[in-house]
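Purpose: get a first structural picture of the assembly so the mutagenesis plan has something to point at.
Setup: two entries, given in the order below. No constraints added.
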Amino acid sequence: MTIVTRRNALVGGAGLMLAGCDRIVASPTVRKVLTLGEKATMSGQRLVTDRTALAPEFSATDLSPNFCVNGTTAPGDAAYQAHVARGFADWRLVVDGMVARPLSLSLAQLQAMPARTQITRHDCVEGWSAIGEWTGVPLMLLLKAAALSSNARYVVFHCADDYHGTPYYESIDLVEAFHPQTILAHHMNRQPLSVGHGAPLRLRVERQLGYKQAKYVMRVQAVASLAGIHGGGGGYWEDRKGYQWYAGI
Amino acid sequence: MDGKLVYRTNLPVRIWHWFNALSVFVMLMSGMMILNAHPRLYWGKYGANPDKAWLELPKFPGYDDPFPPLVTIPSSYDLAAARQWHFFFAWVLAIGIVLFLVYALLSRHLTRDLWLKREERSFGHLWHDIKEHARLRFPTGEAARGYNPLQKIAYLGVVLVLIPLVILTGLTMSPAMNAAFPFLLDLFGGRQSARSIHFLCAAGLALFIAVHLLMVLLAGPINELRSMLTGWYRLPEEKRP
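Result (structure tokens, whole complex):
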């Protein structure tokens, strides 16, 4: 005989409710409907935001006293470690894909290019924020130098780090790629980028969340579609955990 | 003998109420999952693990996070899905409150039913109402046809203060919105302050729901539910002396 105690009934009821809720949450139809909200958010934000509207820039007194390293802290890849050992002397950034003139640039060449310096806020999807100063080459200059094809729609950033065994990558559309604050940063807080923060080059897309700010960028690839690149979601976290590709909110 | 049935709640208000209730519940539950990801709150423009938090939520006994599975959407840790729920229902909440406020203004629901009448605004009157609530004595007869002063203050606080604030502070946390409307950051004193105010508003809404549901139970759940479903409310009988 089963004695249903009040406690058991409560726990059982709660369990059933949880199971029911989880079924709703996991339903593909529900997820599809919810994706409409994501599309509405992106369209709505794009509608009210000028293409070149700048993310707020701060003063040196606003800098976070301790800007934490997040995500990969040191890529385990042997080729990358060899670059670190040689001070990135023979490291190259490749710009290719749908461009008329593919580029291969040394760190010295990138550092000699016109640079933009900006003190901006880095917002992690988890909720925390840190303010840092970034100096780097506007992505727009590289895309122009490489003569971006008019058929290209996205720019993909391939990184040197494997996170949990999968290569890290990210992508942005051309609105963000040609935004004046979108830079490939080689300096942070007036120091060459540390390994923890993505040496020798990391992306800054200042109107989006932290997971878009790809570190250890090795290759910039212009594409017409994100399908067929890794999981097709346009980024490591997008593929792995279903994070929103548009990270403006 | 039963009290008189009166038509108290118009259809648009009833429709809004249920859409709003659903979205507030989903927002609170998915919001708790989002807060689980970083349960520390700060004041100012920045704030992360090395910085001083004004509030650090403790883990729920037996779990790794402050909010246990029973109260979060989804039940197990999934920040990406929680964000998807949160930002879908944010549209329902925001469109709903705008339509409600426009309707409430045009139909004079706001000025006639919700706004405190001149005599209700006196300290004596409010104090009397507080004492009546504390003794769980609620208006009866014709006096129960409208909302009582504390009820009006609670409803006005939700529709004019908490929901607008929770939406604005939510938008202030969006980096894209910071580029579009940078004044929001100045208004709330930075993104992390906005995040803290967002949490405090959510806590206020949760408190409202708790008291609101308690009052519904105390005032007669069948009658109250019927009035919010059909519009018809039975006036509680006046006690004979």
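The longest strand of chain B covers residues 5-7.
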